[in-house]
Design goal:
alpha/beta, Rossmann fold, 2 domains, seven-stranded parallel sheet, five-stranded parallel sheet, 12 strands
């Protein structure tokens, strides 16, 4: 068995696609363990898909007596009224950033009992857990692998290879990140296409969505323009609230806001953005226009031919350093330089049918962009994971 450890939605979202694709290509078993059980992952809706491919769940709250006590405490706390749970932000923050559910001896016991051959994490896992897992893997003599998830949207970003010394392999799901190409690094770093954004995966998860991309109709002559605002943690809540307020002033549009989940530590069942709304991929299916900043969900919006208004002015608004992005000066993304510009563009879009999938210039730009930033054979639906990655999990 190969164990993938998750702690927030972005790594869970990524590892579901990784484990399912690996399961299809190997005879190995795979499991996922959530080390932040304040977030009950069932609310994200991947359960049926994981069961279909026989991806197991390991309950972190059954690893030791201490964790069983924590399980009881969490079960008690989440029954409190929503108003009280919302006031416990310090508790949830402490549990994520400071509290440790298990130690090396507990993990070694799990490795031996489940016959685990490798443990896999994403690079943003809290450091205290990285050290525990590294020690346990060394004692048990198994592989410890790291994934750098998502697509880096900034230009000319190099990674410090010394930051990944703990790991036997580091898997980069990005074609543009700069890595020192030494012989040692060529063996330790594996660059793959990102399965989360593959055409195969989009088809795989489509049937589980309520808003299905295949049912999207770009004709806006008989309905309101659908506008999706996706927030990003690098920009303050104050700025996002300002943008949201301005968009709400526009008449005759259908507006939805999706708050990015990383960094939200309260239980999911009280987060209306998670439970009572659609997931981000579904909302991209629904939308005509996606308004956002530097989030990798823009990759999915590009794949699905959505009009993208990129709020380029937000960093300047907050006094932050200007950044250059990989889609700069390309037809697939339109830069917005002020709130006034944003309002004007959406008002203009309301008055026209804007099926950008018909635009030859857009499609040409899109094809070049995806081939350069995801992989050269992105549009081949039979695109497989690289053999050097599959070999890590075979046998």
């Amino acid at each position: 068995m190969h164990l993938f450890i998750v702690h927030q939605f972005p790594d869970y979202d990524n590892f579901v696609s990784i484990t399912v694709n690996l399961k299809k290509k190997t005879n190995s078993n795979f499991a996922i363990m959530n080390i932040f059980p304040v977030h009950d992952l069932k609310y994200y809706g991947f359960d049926t898909l994981l069961k279909k491919h026989k991806i197991q769940f390991i309950d972190v709250l059954k690893l030791n007596k201490r964790s069983i006590l924590i399980n009881f405490l969490l079960s008690f706390l989440i029954m409190f009224p929503k108003a009280i749970i919302e006031k416990l932000n310090r508790v949830w923050y402490y549990f994520y950033h400071k509290y440790t559910i298990f130690y090396k001896k507990h993990l070694v016991t799990l490795i031996k009992s489940r016959k685990i051959k490798s443990i896999n994490i994403d690079s943003s896992l809290p450091e205290r857990y990285k050290q525990i897992i590294s020690s346990a893997c060394k004692e048990a003599n198994i592989k410890f692998n790291c994934y750098r998830i998502g697509i880096e949207l900034r230009q000319d970003i190099a990674i410090k290879t010394e930051d990944y010394n703990l790991f036997d392999h580091t898997i980069i799901q990005d074609q543009n990140l700069i890595i020192d190409e030494s012989e040692i690094n060529k063996k330790k770093f594996i660059r793959i296409a990102n399965p989360r954004y593959s055409l195969n995966w989009i088809d795989e998860v489509e049937n589980s969505y309520r808003y299905k991309f295949k049912e999207y109709n770009p004709d806006i002559t008989k309905r309101k323009l659908r506008v999706l605002l996706v927030t990003r943690n690098e920009v303050s809540n104050k700025s996002w609230q300002m943008i949201h307020s301005e968009l709400k002033k526009i008449k005759n549009i259908d507006l939805k806001i999706k708050i990015k989940p990383r960094g939200q530590f309260r239980p999911l069942h009280i987060q209306e953005n998670i439970v009572n709304e659609y997931n981000t991929s579904e909302l991209v299916n629904w939308a005509d226009v996606v308004v956002s900043h530097s989030t990798s969900i823009l990759i999915e919006a590009i794949i699905k031919d959505k009009k993208i208004l990129f709020l380029n002015f937000l960093f300047a608004l907050e006094g932050k350093k200007e950044v250059k992005y990989i889609f700069e000066n390309q037809y697939i993304v339109e830069y917005i330089e002020s709130t006034e510009n944003l309002i004007k563009r959406i008002q203009n879009l309301k008055s026209i049918e804007h099926d950008i999938s018909d635009y030859e210039k857009y499609q040409k730009s899109k094809k070049i962009f995806l081939q350069e930033n995801l992989e050269s054979n992105f549009f081949d639906k039979k695109n497989l994971l690289k053999e050097d990655l599959i070999n890590i999990y075979s046998g």
